[in-house]
Amino acid sequence: MTTTGFSPLFVQRKSFIELDGRRRAYALFDENTATELVGPFDRAESPWLPMQGVAPQSDDGCIVVKGKISGKPAVAISLEGAFQGGSIGEVSGAKMVAALDLATIDSKAGKPTAAILLLETGGVRLQEANLGLAAIAEVIASILELRQHAPVITVIAGTVGCFGGMALAAGVSSYVVMTREARLGLNGPEVIEQESGKDEFDASDRALIWAIHGGEQRVGMGLADELVEDSVDAIGSAVQRFVTAGKPAQHRSEQVELYRQRIADLDSSRQIDPLALREQWKSLDSKGGTR
Description:
Layout: H1 9-12, H2 21-27, E1 35-37, E2 62-69, E3 72-79, H3 90-108, E4 114-118, H4 129-146, E5 152-156, H5 165-171, E6 175-179, H6 189-196, H7 206-213, H8 215-220, E7 226-228, H9 232-245, H10 256-264, H11 274-287
Parallel strand pairs: 3-4, 4-5, 5-6, 6-7
Antiparallel strand pairs: 1-2, 2-3
Helix pairs in contact: 3-4, 4-5
């Protein structure tokens, strides 16, 4: 006797979060179309980590895979959250920029190539501070260039989340897909608590963290586009839809006045309730929309 028939669908699904960065990237592509660029056997390692007693990784935690999604050219750039918290250094940043720029060249040549950013990252790699900051600036510039020609789709699944400078990269993407387990924010909870104290933000309060940074909240406020379950099929389907849709009529980051006004309307004299804020912004979206 088996218990298969009694297992909930959630247990039977193929989890996207449980895949490593390389398998996440390959899972998005049409069968037999994916090819990795500058893979681990090319030994593109950080030269700075060994100087500080940190073992490097042969792909510097950045996986670049090119192929087709729903028959359309695409490139996926996946950050391995298990290596240095998915942080960006000189080499991983250079790989991201090169992949985005090649997609832009192809797009300008009449072959629109979407980019999918699988972001599990705390931002800049502290061991390569200035180089990491410069790399993130170049990544954002490359996204801004590519998104004029083809969609740039960010996927944040969990469990590392997306913070720091790479949250800015997510912010200028064409579309953002998140799971409920995912988090998105400029500063992580631990950083806020460290700098401003526990009264400002209790980093041990998981309910508070997900109420502010979690995928459900970000999508509910219109700061991300689609909330999906943690499954390869659900995330793959969302990516396929956005690749097929192409670039949006207007990017969220271009709506500067809209968000300036929303921030100006906030009452900072009292503690803002995340759920109330979500409902307030959702009602505003129904009247004018962020898209």
